[in-house]
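Run folding on both entries below.
>entry_1
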Amino acid sequence: MRLGDDVDDYCSRCKFSSTHAVVSMAGEDVQKVRCRTCNHEHNYRKNKGGRGAMSKKEAFDKVLASVTGVMEESKKPAKK
């Protein structure tokens, strides 16, 4: 790995894994990268980050809530 090389990493701004350019190294280890999609510079995450895949139930509940406008009881804000 050298400065300017391409590496895949998770971008916290784009919210997905994409191609990044290496901008900072400490010895042989990559420290910082810049997203080639949005130009956001961040620490190298070794392509780990973001949320894991959504379960079928979570996906169904999300779609249902967007259609009906009703939230699940456990996700409703607490009343004062």
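>entry_2
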Amino acid sequence: MRALFLTFAHMEKQLEKWELLKSEEGIDLKLFKVRYDYLRNPRNDKIIKVIVLDGSDSVNVVPITKNDGILMIEQYRFGIGDYTLEIPGGIVDEGEDHQQAAARELLEETGYSGKDWQYLGVIPANPVFQNSSIHHWLVRDIALTGTTDFDDAEDIRFLEIPIERVRQMIRKGEIRHPHTLNALVLALNVI
């Protein structure tokens, strides 16, 4: 197999679009609907069938405490069969904008809320096979204002970690959730 190495000058060349020939609905997986797309590869003109998981956008929240800590959660993740250290987040409900979803998820998962919100940006959830995005939010000076409201499939513990300790944990690879890492890198550039 021959590798293709590009210089920066080569990267400025526009890549050809893949032609979508048709789409077929697949099964409904509750959080996602499977879709099969048939595309023409512009490099070799071959038609390929790909799977796309069609789902709703999600949100992540980097909640900053009055003590300059980050309120993080430990949550069991079925895919790896273990707990991960994350920030609060979840799916944007129908009819809800992503800032409303961020505030709702923070309250449901931790009982905390805040008023000083800052949008950090959006990334594709997993561009390999998903068509949804994740919106990242930062909220400062959070306060305990309610109680948690976990889904049946959630088992969450939350803890406040000093910002400098979070930086160290990132460098040491102790935070493994990719969407959390992305949100924290964005947040640590503005706090």
